[in-house]
Amino acid sequence: xEYKGHPGVEELSSYLVAESPRCAVIVAAAFFDxxxxxxxxxxxxxxxxxxxxxxxxxxxxxxSEHDDLDVLRDLRNGFAHExxxxxxxxxxxxxxxxxxxxRTASDARSLDRxxxxxxxxxxxxxxxxxxxxxxxxxxxxDLISRSRARV
Length: 151
Known about the structure:
Elements: H1 7-16, H2 21-39, H3 48-57, H4 63-81, H5 90-97, H6 100-108, H7 118-150
Helix pairs in contact: 2-3, 2-4, 2-7, 3-4, 5-7
């Protein structure tokens, strides 16, 4: 799956092309951690979990996005800490298929012909949330610019 339309998300897409589920999950989690760190203007070393929670508290994430990024974070921890696990098992497949962004999209549209694997579903969710966060980054920058112009 390839993302087009925003340089930051296109960069993420280039890292995910033809990667294993393990690599895709780890790279996607790192991408979101970096984006949330920037959106929160976070200068401290903190956990992804703390950043995801703070982003929800500051209304930078919807509840669905928060829940999905928390699933991604948990999947990342599983892959990063288990030497021999490099693909989704039944439990992780079910967690991906239950992601709220995926459920909403797949219930609204017939995506079965295009998105056929748990990795495809995960990459769909990553792309949707990635684009949303890039838009929020732009909105935040515009608000900061406008407030500085008034001073």
